[in-house]
Amino acid sequence: MNTIIQNILVFSAVALALLFLIRKFFWKKKASKKACGNDNCGCH
């Protein structure tokens, strides 16, 4: 019974780590379309 709980915890930790990496590197965020003036604010 103890090995079943350990396996569940290990697989869930690996799944969470993979989900984090996929969201961090492959999930493309849409650029916000805010009006930016000519004051060189660094938003573009």
TrEMBL record:
Q: Which Pfam families match?
A: FeoB_associated
Q: Which UniProt keywords apply?
A: Membrane, Transmembrane, Transmembrane helix
Q: Which residues cross the membrane?
A: 6-26
Q: What is this protein called?
A: FeoB-associated Cys-rich membrane protein
